[in-house]
Specification:
mainly alpha; elongated
């Protein structure tokens, strides 16, 4: 092994690290040794303090994680939108499914666990999931009766719910007449 004048063996340290870090660690070790030699030659810092400072610095460098690969392992449980399971009414996947679910969250003012079982999204154990399917079917049926030249939806979940789980069935009791929506 390569032992320098200070007695450090660079290759024994680098054998424990992944291959892509070998040359980088060797460079750092040589730089640390050069700094130590310069400081010891000029007498600017007591050798023990310098040794402790360099040891701390080298520990910080060696304790860093290796860089993550872009195509790394999938997160635990995978992406539920990539290959969805138990879709009975919605026949979509990927980004379109994610956007649709976020629209439901916004329309009802809830998060995913309102309809889904936490940790088991395909499960039908939550009865609110079946109600959501019924409401999606109802919305599709209503939209089917409206002529549309561009395929735009006239009725959505937000049309009735307006950010609340239970839609209002009567106007608020403010005494003010309802104002038409802004165009």
């Amino acid at each position: 092994m390569n032992a320098n004048k200070a007695g450090f063996t660079v290759s024994t340290v680098s054998r424990r690290r992944p291959e892509h870090l070998h040359s980088e660690l060797e460079k750092i070790a040589l730089e640390l040794y050069a700094i130590w030699r310069r400081c010891a030659a000029y007498g600017s810092m007591p050798p023990m303090r310098l040794f402790l400072a360099l040891s701390l610095l080298s520990f910080c460098v060696l304790a860093q994680d290796a860089p993550k690969k872009e195509g790394g392992p999938p997160r635990k449980g995978g992406n539920p939108f990539a290959e969805p399971k138990n879709l009975k009414v919605l026949k979509i996947s990927g980004d379109q499914l994610r956007d649709t679910m976020r629209a439901f969250n916004t329309a009802l003012g809830v998060n995913c666990n309102h309809c889904h079982v936490q940790g088991d999204l395909p499960s039908d154990a939550n009865p609110k999931k079946e109600m959501a399917r019924t409401m999606i079917t109802m919305t599709r049926e209503i939209n089917g009766h409206f002529p549309s030249s561009e395929g735009n939806l006239k009725v959505r979940c937000y049309t009735c719910h307006r950010g609340a789980v239970a839609p209002l069935t009567a106007p608020p009791e403010t005494g003010d007449a309802a104002k038409p929506p802004a165009k």
